[in-house]
Automatic annotation (TrEMBL):
CC cofactor note: Binds 1 [4Fe-4S] cluster per subunit. Binds 1 Mg(2+) ion per subunit.
Active site location: 12
Binding, Mg(2+): 293, 355-356
Keywords noted in UniProt: 4Fe-4S, Glutamine amidotransferase, Glycosyltransferase, Iron, Iron-sulfur, Magnesium, Metal-binding, Purine biosynthesis, Transferase
MF-aspect GO terms: amidophosphoribosyltransferase activity
Residues annotated to bind [4Fe-4S] cluster: 246, 392, 446, 449
InterPro entries named among the record's database cross-references: GATase_2_dom, Ntn_hydrolases_N, PRTase-like, PRTase_dom, PurF, PurF_N
Free-text function comment from the UniProt entry: Catalyzes the formation of phosphoribosylamine from phosphoribosylpyrophosphate (PRPP) and glutamine.
Family affiliation: In the C-terminal section; belongs to the purine/pyrimidine phosphoribosyltransferase family.
Record's protein name: Amidophosphoribosyltransferase
Reaction equation(s) it catalyzes: 5-phospho-beta-D-ribosylamine + L-glutamate + diphosphate = 5-phospho-alpha-D-ribose 1-diphosphate + L-glutamine + H2O
The species this protein was found in: Lentibacillus juripiscarius
Pathway this chain belongs to: Purine metabolism; IMP biosynthesis via de novo pathway; N(1)-(5-phospho-D-ribosyl)glycinamide from 5-phospho-alpha-D-ribose 1-diphosphate: step 1/2
Cofactor(s) recorded in Swiss-Prot or TrEMBL: [4Fe-4S] cluster; Mg(2+)
């Protein structure tokens, strides 16, 4: 496997506040609402006006901040991060925001996504004498910015970003400015909200609701937003490509109460279920969803098929998500602890089990087994997204070709492997129909892990000018 493919495994959440007396506290609440985006580390950097100060650690937001006194983290601006670590990167050094101190300034950086050419940039920097302390893409970016200018400003950020390829939402904070930048194809989500006079920026709009902020707008593809005491300035660091929002944000990653690129996640999942019922109906008695991310699609499937939706599986809320556990053993143990069948609902019934996606197939097999042990006479598995046949280059932990069940087996073989009586996937046009309501607003989605059609090719670094809009 190419070295740059190995470092693509990150799904994170970022949150920033400008001009609020309780910036650190708001960041804590914002991060808490995005805990589902990363459970291995959390941190924030607060700007007291005189200096930037970090508090971060490994673990859940509550673990990291249990001892943090927000009285000590005073300041009117902050950025924060929740992190999903991959094998080998689960270290304190990699927890963001990264804080850099130089002769001229302090600067903090946090991101969600992946720079696909980070490894080659890192090699170049090392050849030039840089010594990097983390495996984070953001340290590479910070070095590129410093090479461009001693001071962080729109030009140095644009220069650095234009040497990178990838999918990212980035927050940066200096003594006097909060910056937000989005990749030229807008693959990752990033939105701006208002809380009175304060500005907030977040990966997901559910973070705004958590703190009582109001959504204002999404950061645009290739846009660099600078927020400071002069207000908000928008500039373009890249020619705006066609928006290709990650479709997995809708399928699985985002919270149902979030609006991603103006589309509500629950509503899109419900529509995926409806499209799936049309494309792949089943002779069955009840529809059940795998909690939590498949419930909306299961409700849609039930509505469109006329079958009753029942709570056939329940979730123990005190166990973390399986998809983002760093090892396969932990993932499988997690499933056992996490889900339980509602025997009285499924016994003797032909069950349609709706799930959002199949990655490795091991989780689906366990759930099918569990339903059959609970007495289900048949289990018809319906997946509310197309088969995942390709790895993600843009920051989502999707495994390698070798581990992706749909990259290695036919539909029939997958059905047999997971023990389903029948198996159906949503088609790619069905997925697009469920997400893209208004092409003029929404343009398009990334479906590269399903189709192999990658919107940003490796080695496609852009050479662009920096334009203020
Ligand atoms: S490849 Fe898949 S997971 Fe990655 S950004 Fe595209 S749709 Fe999202």
């Amino acid at each position: 496997m190419h070295a740059e493919q190995k470092g693509i495994n990150e799904e994170c959440g970022i949150f920033g506040v400008w001009d609020h007396p309780r910036a650190a506290e708001l960041t804590y609440y914002g991060l808490h609402s995005m805990q589902h985006r990363g459970q291995d580390g959390a941190g924030l950097v607060v700007n007291s006006g005189r200096r930037l100060r970090a508090h971060k650690g490994l673990g859940l937001v509550n673990d990291v901040f249990q001892d943090a006194s927000f009285q000590e983290l005073t300041g009117s601006a902050a950025i924060g991060h929740v992190r999903n670590a991959t094998e080998g990167s689960h270290t304190y050094e990699n927890v963001q925001p990264l804080l850099f101190q130089s002769q001229t300034e302090s600067m903090a950086l946090a991101h969600n996504g992946n720079l696909i050419n980070a490894d080659s940039l890192r090699t170049e920097l090392e050849h030039e004498g840089s010594i990097l302390q983390t495996s984070s893409d953001m340290e590479v970016l910070a070095h590129l910015m410093k090479k461009s200018s001693m001071e962080t400003n729109e030009t140095s950020i644009a220069d650095a970003l234009n040497q990178t390829t990838g999918a990212y939402g980035i927050l940066m904070m200096t003594d006097d400015t909060l910056y937000a930048a989005l990749d030229p194809n807008g693959i990752r989500p990033l939105s701006i909200g208002r809380l009175g006079d304060a500005y907030v920026v977040a990966s997901e709009s559910c973070a705004f609701d958590q703190i009582g902020a109001v959504f204002e707008r999404d950061v645009l593809p290739g846009e660099l937003v600078a927020i400071n005491d002069d207000g908000v300035q928008s500039s373009r660091f890249a020619i705006r490509g066609q928006r290709k929002m990650c479709s997995m944000e809708y399928v699985y990653l985002s919270r149902p109460d979030s609006d991603v690129n103006t589309v509500n996640v629950h509503a899109s999942r419900k529509q995926m279920g409806k499209e799936l019922a049309k494309e792949s109906p089943a002779n069955a008695d009840i529809v059940v969803g795998v909690p939590d991310s498949s419930i909306s699609a299961a409700i849609g499937f039930a509505e469109a098929s006329g079958l009753p939706y029942e709570m056939g599986i329940i979730k123990n809320r005190y166990v973390g998500r399986t998809f983002i556990q760093p090892t396969q053993d932990l993932r499988e143990q997690g499933v056992k602890m996490k889900l339980a069948p509602v025997r009285g609902m499924v016994a003797g019934k032909r069950v349609v089990m709706v799930d959002d996606s199949i990655v490795r197939g091991t989780t689906s097999k366990r759930i099918v087994d569990m339903l059959k042990h609970a007495g289900a006479s048949e289990v018809h598995v319906r997946i509310a997204s197309p088969p995942i046949q390709h790895p993600c280059w843009y920051g989502i932990d999707m495994s390698t070709y070798r581990e992706l069940i749909a990259a290695n087996y036919t539909l029939e073989a997958i059905g047999e492997l997971i023990g389903a009586n029948s198996l159906g996937f949503l088609s790619e046009p069905g997925l697009e129909k469920a997400i893209v309501k208004d092409k003029s607003l929404h343009q398009g989605i990334c479906t590269a892990c399903m189709t192999g059609d990658y919107p940003v090719a490796k080695g496609a670094e852009r050479v662009l000018t920096h334009k203020r809009s």
